[in-house]
Amino acid sequence: MSYQKKYLPLVLSVAIAAGVFIGGKLNFTDSPDRLFSTNSKKDKLNRLIDYIDYDYVDEINTDSIVDVTVNGILNNLDPHSVYIPKEDMERVAEEMKGDFVGIGVSFYTYKDTITVIRAIEGGPSEKAGIKGGDRIIMADGDSLYGSSLQDGELVKKLKGSLNSKVKLKVYRKGEPELLDITVKRGKIPIKSVDAAYMLTEKLGYIKVNRFAESTYKEFKKALDKLQNLGATEVALDLRDNPGGFLGIAEQMVDEFLEDDKLILFTKNKRGSIEKSFATSKGDFEDGQIYVLIDENSASASEIVAGALQDNDKGIIVGRRSYGKGLVQREMDLGDGSAVRLTVSRYYTPTGRSIQRPYKNGNKDYYDEYFERLDSGELLDPEKIQVADSLKFTTPKGKVVYGGGGIIPDVFVPIDNSMHNETLNFLQRRGFISYFVFEELEKDRHLYDGISKRDFIDSFEINDDLVFAFQDYLNVRTDSKITFVAYHDEVKQYLKATLADQLYGGGSFEEIFNQRDIMIDEVIKLSDEN
C-alpha cells in the first residue's frame, strides 16, 4: 500500500477518468426552487422508495436502492456523468485537491505490519527521522499490526488534523529496542508531476499524471527548473493521464501559447459559448514543445494537445488519444455523496469536438480500446479511421480531425517489449515492488554512498537478481515463469523500482524512459531541429 499509487491498470484508469472537470460545485442549497421544484416524475420516484421502505416484505437498505437508482439514471446519459458514493468522496476529493494531511510515508502492509518503503522527501516523517524499512508498530498507543486491520483503517490512524502530533513506536532492524518517534502531521502532496529532468543539453522532460488543483504549481516549478538548466525545448509527457480540472489545463497551455490565442471554447445545451484565451503570462512561448500522448490520454490531456496542435504550436507525438470532449460539474447530493454531471462540450480552437460516439452504451464505449488494439491502429497509423465530414484546418494549413481523440503529428507505435502483458501484470499486482523491497531488507547499507545520479547512470542489475526474481515468483504464484525472452526488460523494471524505493523523485521514470521508443523519437525530432 502506498499513498501514491502510481501504476494502476491503464484501461481501468481511463475508464474511471476524472475527465474535464469544472472546479465550481453545484449544491442542493444553491437554487432549490429552480433546480428541484416538485413535479410528478420526482414524486413518483420518492413514493416508490418510501413504499418499499415501509411495506416491502424484507428489510431493505433503501440507501442502496437510491445508489442503484442514481447510477441507473446516469448510465442512460453519457459515460462520464458519474455518481460518487459517500464512502469514496474523501479519497476522490484528496486526489483532485492534490494533497492530504498525514505523516508522509509510502508504505506496505508487510507481514501484517505497516512497513515504510520511503519517507516522502521533505515530509514530516523524514524530518522526524523515519527511514525506509522501519515498521510502525503503534500510533498513540493503538496497535497498527495484525491481520484484522485493513489498509483503510491503518491510513485513518496515521491521518489527523494539520499540525497535530502522533506518537509512534517504531521497530528498526539492528536496534535493540523499539524507537519512540513523534511526528507532527503536515500537508502531504499527491504528486502530479512524476518526473522533471533533462533528456539532452537543450531538451527537458516533464511527466504529468493528472490535472489536480496543485498540478499547475508543480508543473510551473518543474518548467522553471528545466529552463534554469538550459532547456529551450520541452517534452511534456501526458501518456496515461486521464484528465482533471479544466482550468489547470488552460493554465498549462498558456505557458506555451502567445497572447490572445484561443485555447478552447465550451458550449452547453442552450447554445451558450464560453471561450478561453492565452494571456501574457506564458514563460515558454518561444520554446519548442513536444506533447506525448497515447490511447489513455484523456480529456484535459487532450485539451492541451488539441490547443497546441490547432494553433500550429509544437509537435504532438504518439498515438491517437482517448477521445473525451465532455465537461462535468460536481453537485453535492446533501448526504456526503455527489454527482459529476456532464454540462457542456468543449471544442478545440479550430472548432472540432474530439468526443467519441457513445450512443451504443457504456460497455461499447469502453470496449473501443480493444477494438483499436484488434484493428492494428496501435501499430499502424493508416489503420486510424477518420471521417472527411470532421476535417478541420489549422491556420497554417495542417489538416486535423474531430470525432474521436487527437491524432498525433508524429505517430509512434506501441512498443510490445515495454508493454509486455506479463511484466505489466506483475507490476500492477505489486510483485516487482515486494520483491525489490525484500531484497533491500537484506542489507540496505549496500547502497550507502551511492548517489541517485550515480545509481541512474552507472548501477547495473546483475543476472542473479533476475533469476532470484524468477524463483520468487514461481514460489508465490505456483507457476513456471521464465524471463528468457525479455531478460533486459526485467532488469529495467527491477532497477527502476529499486531506484524509486531508494531515491524517489522521478528516478523510476528516468530509468524506465531509457528504453522508451517514444522518448527516442522526441530526441530524434529535437536533433533534427
UniProtKB/TrEMBL annotation:
Tagged with keyword Transmembrane: yes
Query: Cross-referenced SUPFAM superfamilies, in alphabetical order?
Result: ClpP/crotonase, PDZ domain-like
Instruction: Tell me the PANTHER family matching this sequence.
Output: CARBOXY-TERMINAL PROCESSING PROTEASE CTPA, TAIL-SPECIFIC PROTEASE
Transmembrane stretches, by residue range? 7-28
The species is Algibacter aquimarinus
* Keywords of the record: Hydrolase, Membrane, Protease, Serine protease, Transmembrane, Transmembrane helix
Q: Per its record, how is this protein called by name? A: S41 family peptidase
Pfam families membership: PDZ_2, Peptidase_S41
The keyword DNA damage belongs to this UniProt entry's keyword annotation: no
| Stored Gene3D superfamilies | 2-enoyl-CoA Hydratase, Chain A, domain 1, 2.30.42.10, 3.30.750.44
Q: Which residues form the PDZ domain?
A: 81-151
Q: Which family does it belong to?
A: Belongs to the peptidase S41A family.
